[in-house]
Design brief:
Helix content: 55-70%
Structural class: mainly alpha
Distance between the termini: 35 Å
Order of helices and strands: HHHHHH
Radius of gyration: 18 Å
Length: 178
Amino acid sequence: MSPWFIVVAAVLLSLERIAYEVIWRAPDTFCTFCARPMVRPFGEPIDILQKFFYGFKGVQLAVFFGWCYGYGNGKLWPPDSGGLALCIGALLIVAGQLLNYSVFAQLGKVGVFYGNKMGYEVPWCRDFPFSVLNHPQYIGASLSIWGFFLVMRFPYDDWYVLPAIETLYYALGAHFEQ
């Protein structure tokens, strides 16, 4: 594994967490940014943050597929890792996406995209998945990433590198958004 490739991937993947941390800690500054004439046509701060979310997911997927392509010798097709890794990976992806869907279903766009920090009334939710997990969206994202790399890169020795980095980033995000 190339240390430079790992560093570039880690930096690109960190941009999402850094942006969310800055917005979480300085929502007024973000709202002021969103009120600029060039930014305002893109919607309310919640809408703009949602657009950032999609952009960050695009970067994340580009890094993931770039990793698979680069370490897969120019191929994206996953290795023949056996049925067990494929089944576990698929189950992790489904469980992770179920958690993410449940968060969006419970909180809606305003709740997911920091509406409570931007002056919106967001009621506290204690229903599933919040009834069993403190940060179900971050756990869901981490499970999905581990599942993806189990399917796409296991048993190669690089399969766990990006999932470990992303898990660290999500854990730090959960910690600092308390």
